[in-house]
From TrEMBL:
Coiled coil: none
Source organism of this protein record: Thermomonospora echinospora
Protein name as it appears in the record: CubicO group peptidase, beta-lactamase class C family
Superkingdom as given in the UniProt entry: Bacteria
SUPFAM superfamilies, A to Z: beta-lactamase/transpeptidase-like
Domain Beta-lactamase-related: residue ranges: 48-338
Length: 355
């Protein structure tokens, strides 16, 4: 297996985003790393020459932010600042506390809280900006006001229901647990992004990034101030591969708490009948001989995918500056490439064991 084989696997991913002017995909296999880039960070416009897409081009990664929020939770658990089984009411101001069955931080991080996908009232407020910035005017105060009003769709811990609301709330609660008026963005920087050396990754919407497109039309920069932990991050293929490599090799990360947290992200934490075991945030697919952990993210102008195989020591990231649609195969192509990469490694390991 050589670099050319990695290149062959990434080729279909680069071609799976029609209408995108920038696609960057990267893969890790053991000690091999490869990033391939196609296109430019924006469409050509009169009087301006767009920059080529490179490994350091920043893309909005949408819900891939949630995996970082889960890692922040695991790091704060390892540091003894919070506990997985802590009820959310413990960290909420009195006016925002819920009645009824306890929802824990672990429920929020495994999508088993029973909370709806969106806070009550957000969809109605978002309608004027549905195709640009639906979360732009939704504040932390709005989020807290929605918590006691939300109707649970299932008893906590009994059903998997994907919830932007839940993970956005988790990010805010972790910031409250840190104290001192800390913002989620600053806490994530200090505890995760800077220690991992992810210099191109943050929640800043004003740093240079690729232009996002939806049906060929440029979209404004994504804003999600009230639920940053659910989807505010921007990142690069280079940073995302560094992040995934840390998940493959937690013991190589300096500091006991972050290394322990990275290892914790790989462990199933919740078991719900009819579903695969749930790690923190990541989706887990268990094959016959290897596991895959994966997640995707979409904003109004971008689509992102990341995944890794702990046993096969492979990882893949794919980023593009066009939003997903029902006909888009970008995420599926990226998952298929990751699966093929893991399967090749698994077969190679099996052949090695027989020789």
């Amino acid at each position: 297996m050589n670099g050319a084989a990695l290149d062959d696997l990434l080729g279909p991913v680069l071609g799976a985003a029609p209408g995108a002017c920038a696609v960057v995909a990267g893969a890790v296999r053991g000690g091999e790393h490869l990033i391939r880039c196609r296109g430019t960070s924006a469409r050509h416009v009169r009087g301006a020459e767009p920059e080529p897409a490179v490994p350091g081009t920043r893309f909005e990664i949408g819900s891939l932010t949630k995996t970082f929020t889960g890692l922040l939770l695991a790091e704060m658990v390892a540091a003894g600042q919070v506990g997985y089984d802590d009820p959310v009411n413990h960290y909420l101001p009195y006016r925002a506390r819920r009645t009824g069955p306890d929802i824990t931080l672990l429920h929020l991080a495994t999508h088993t809280s029973g909370l709806p996908c969106l806070p009550p009232g957000l969809l109605r407020r978002a309608m004027p900006r549905m195709f640009t910035n639906p979360y732009a005017t939704y504040t932390t105060a709005d989020l807290l006001a929605a918590v006691p009003r939300a109707r649970l769709r299932a008893r906590p811990g009994t059903r998997v229901r994907y919830s932007n609301f839940g993970v956005g709330l988790l990010g805010h609660l972790l910031a409250r647990a840190a104290g001192g008026g800390t913002r989620y963005e600053d806490l994530l920087d200090a505890r995760v992004l800077i220690p991992l050396g992810l210099t191109g990754t943050d929640c800043d919407p004003y740093r240079p990034q690729a232009t996002g497109y939806w049906h060929g039309r440029a979209r404004p920069t994504w804003l999600i101030p009230g639920m940053a932990g659910a989807g505010a991050l921007r990142s690069t293929a280079r940073d995302m591969l560094r992040y995934l490599t840390a998940l493959l090799d937690p013991a190589t990360v300096p500091g006991p708490t972050l290394g322990a947290a990275l290892a914790d992200m790989r462990r199933p934490r919740a078991v719900v009948p009819g579903n695969e075991p749930r790690p923190l945030i990541w989706n887990l697919h268990r094959g016959d001989d290897h596991d895959l952990l994966h997640h995707s993210g979409v904003t109004r102008g971008f689509t992102a995918f990341a995944g890794f195989g702990p046993q096969t020591r492979v990882a893949l990231v794919a980023l593009t500056n066009t939003t997903a649609s029902l006909r888009t195969t970008f995420v599926q192509a990226a998952y298929d490439a990751l699966d093929a990469l893991a399967a090749q490694q698994s077969r190679s390991a099996g052949q090695g064991a027989r020789t």
